[in-house]
């Protein structure tokens, strides 16, 4: 699955659940709202609380692990 596909699956879950992004440089942040993340052409922008943008791409991202499949009832 590609960078864009994976992040889009997390972002567009029917019932959104916050998830953590970890970057190769050690930075981590929690995406707490689906609309706080924009993904396009292999690059993503997360708007942190206070409107602080965090820009990252597929090379900066630590591989995402976890279940992006809907849970029963979602």
Structural notes for this entry:
It contains one helix and five strands; from the N terminus they run H-E-E-E-E-E. The chain is mainly beta and 74 residues long. It has one domain. The strands form two sheets. It has a three-stranded antiparallel beta sheet, covered by helices on one side. Strand 3 and strand 4 form a beta hairpin. The longest helix is centred in the N-terminal third of the chain and has 9 residues. The two termini are 22 Å apart.
Strand content: 25-35%
Indicate the overall shape. globular
Q: How many domains would you count in the coordinates? A: 1
Distance between the termini: 22 Å
Computed Rg: 12 Å
Averaging pLDDT over every residue, what do you get? 79
Helical stretch tally = 1
H/E element sequence: HEEEEE
User: Structural class of the helices, strands and pairings?
Assistant: mainly beta
Q: In percent, how helical is the residue content?
A: 10-25%
Number of strands: 5
Low-confidence stretches: none
Strand count, sense and barrel status of the largest sheet are: 3 strands, antiparallel
Strand order of the largest sheet: 3-4-5
């Amino acid at each position: 699955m590609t960078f864009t596909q994976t992040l889009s699956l997390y972002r567009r879950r029917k019932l959104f659940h916050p998830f953590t992004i970890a970057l190769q440089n050690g930075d981590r942040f929690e995406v707490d709202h689906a609309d706080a993340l924009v993904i396009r052409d292999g690059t993503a922008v997360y708007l942190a609380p206070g409107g602080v943008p965090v820009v990252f791409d597929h090379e900066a991202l630590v591989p995402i692990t976890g279940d992006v499949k809907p849970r029963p009832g979602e």
